[in-house]
Amino acid sequence: MLTLDSQAALPLVTQIVQGLGRQIDEAALREGTKLPSIRQFAQSHQVSVFTVVEAYDRLVAQGYLVSRPHSGFFVRRRAAAGAAEPVPASPQGFDSAWYLRRIFENRHLAVKAGCGWLPGDWLFEDGLRRGLRALAADDADLGGYGDPKGYPPLRQAICEALAEQQVTVPPAQVLLTQGSSQALDLCVRRLVRAGDTVLVDDPGYANLLFSLRFQGARLLGVPRTPQGYDLAALEALVTEHRPKVFFTQPRLQSPTGSAAPLGQLHRLLQLAEKHDLTIVENDIYVELDPEPRPSLASLDQLTRVIYIGSYSKTISPNIRVGFLAAHPDLLEDLAQLKMISGLTSAEFGERLALSALLDGRRRKHLKSLRERLAEAHQRVGGRLVALGFELFAEPKAGMFLWARHPRLPDAPALANRAAEADIMLGPGHLFRAELQPTDWMRFNVAFSGDERLFAFLARELE
Questions:
Q1: Of 1, 38, 152, 334, which residue is the least packed, with the fewest Cβ within 10 Å?
Q2: Is 272 exposed, middle or buried (0-12, 13-18, 19+ CB in 10 A)?
Q3: DSSP letter at 398?
C-alpha cells in the first residue's frame, strides 16, 4: 500500500516514484504486475492526473515500468535491492504516447503557455472559410481515395512555393502527408532500424524524439547553441559514431527558437557527404520567418536532404496537411509506406489547403502574423527577464522562447503545479535526447501574454 503525504516537503511525484520503486526493488510488486491506470491511480490517491503521468514517466525512464499500447503500465524488471544507478529506458519500455495524451487531452487548460500551436484567431480562419464555401459550391467528385502521393494541384503549388525558396523539385518528388508528424514518421520507418545510431537536435522536437525511441533508435544529441549548432560536437559525433541519419530543424527550432547560419549549413552538408549521412530537415516554421534564410534543401537540392513542411502552423492544424520532398528513389519508398499505413491522405483537406494557399489575402496574413509574433517575443521575453529568467536566445521570430530560472530548478514539478492552476507549461526534459532532467522550459509566446501565467510564476518565486 502506497501512502502519500500532500503536506510533506518531498514533491508528490517523487513520493510516488520512490514508493513504487521501493516496492519493485523489494519484490512487493513482481515483474509483470499491472499497475493501476493513470486515472485510477490519481483517483484512488487523490492526486492530479499530471502528477501520476510524470511519476509513471520517470519510472519508465528508470527501467522500472514498461508501457504496453492499449494495455497499460507493467513492472518491467525486479531491480536488485540497493541498486545505485537506474538503467535508461529501452525503446520498448518508453511510453511514447503519454506526452501526446497530456497535451491533446488537456487543450481545455486556460493558459497554454507550453503548447506547440497558435491561437485560432492568429490563423488564416477567413481564408479557410472562403475555401470551405468554394468547395461546397464546387461539383468536383470527392469520392474514391485520391492520388496516393496527394492532390496533384496542391503538389504543383508546393513546387512553386519551394522554387521561391531556391529548391527546384518536380511534383513527382513531393508527397502529401497528414501533417508533418506523418512525414517524420514515414522517414523514421524508412531510414531507421532498431539499434541504429541517429543524430537529433538536443534539445529537439519532442514528438520526433518519441517516435525514434519507439523505433528502437540510439539517439545522440547534437547540442544547440543560441547561434545554431555546436559544430565541434556535431563533427565529433559524426566522425566517432557514423550515424545513418540526422533529424534536424535548422530554422526557428523547437524548443530553443535558434537558427543555424549559412556557414553551419554548408559545413553540415560537407560532413554528410564525407560520412554518407542522410539529413531530414524539418522546416515547418519557414512561413513564420521574416528573414530569407537558405535551407539545407536549397543548398543540397534533395541529394542528401529530405525536406519536410506543413501548413498546420499558419493555416490550421485541423486540416492536417503536410508534405515531404525527397530524391526520387527515396520518395517512391516513402509513398509506398504511406500507402501501407493509410492508403492515401485526405483529398478534401488538401483541396482546402490549396484554396487557402491561392487566396490573395494570404501574403498579407503571413506578414501580419510575423509582426504579431515579433511583438509577442518582445513582450513575453521582457516579462520573463523581469522575473529573473534567463533566455537561451532571443530570436524575435517564430513561436518559442527557451528559458529557465535559477530558483525554479524542478521544471516537471513546476509544470504539475501549473496544471493545477489551469496552466500548461512545457518542461524541458521532454525535449532532451535522453530525457535528462533540466531546469529549462519552453514558452509559446502567442499563449504566454496572459497575466495568470506571470502571477503564477511570481507566486512560485515567492
A1: 1
A2: buried
A3: S
Vertex 183 angle, CA 400 and 363, to 5°:
55
- Closest to 280 (Cα-Cα) out of 295, 292, 270, 291: 295
Q: At residue 410, what is the residue type?
A: D
The per-residue pLDDT for range 376-390, each reduced to its tens digit, is 999 999 999 999 999
One-letter amino acid of 219:
L
Given a contact cutoff of 8 angstroms between Cβ atoms, the answer to whether 224 and 203 are in contact is: yes
What is the per-residue pLDDT across 250-301, written as a single tens digit (0 to 9) for each? 999 999 999 999 999 999 999 999 999 999 999 999 999 999 999 999 999 9
C-alpha cell at 74: 507493467
Cis amide prior to 148 (ω within 30 degrees): no
Residue located via cell numbers 524542478: 410
Judged by DSSP in three states, 259 sits in: coil
* Alpha-carbon dihedral sign for residues 209, 21, 106, 132: positive
What cell numbers appear for 155 in the block?
A: 503538389
Helix (H, G, I), strand (E, B), or coil: what is residue 246? strand
Q: Is the dihedral of CA 202, 203, 204, 209 positive or negative?
A: positive
59-78 as b/e: b if 16+ CB within 10 A: bbbbbbbbbeeeebbbbbee
pTM: 0.78
CA–CA dist 383, 354 (Å, integer) = 39
For CA atoms 420, 421, 422, 425, the dihedral sign is negative
Is the CB of residue 73 less than 8 Å from the CB of residue 29?
no
> Cβ distance 188 to 215 under 8 Å?
yes
3-class SS of residue 429: helix
Residues with Cβ within 8 Å of residue 55, at least 6 apart in sequence: 12, 13, 16, 17, 20
CA distance 6 to 436: 26
Yes or no: say if 73 and 67 are a contact pair by the CB < 8 Å rule: yes
Per-residue three-class SS string for 69-133: CCCEEEECCCCCCCCCCCCCCCHHHCCCCHHHHHHHCCCCCCECCCCCCCCHHHCCHHHHHHHHH
CA distances from 439 to 293, 403, 405, 414, 431 (A): 31, 8, 7, 10, 12
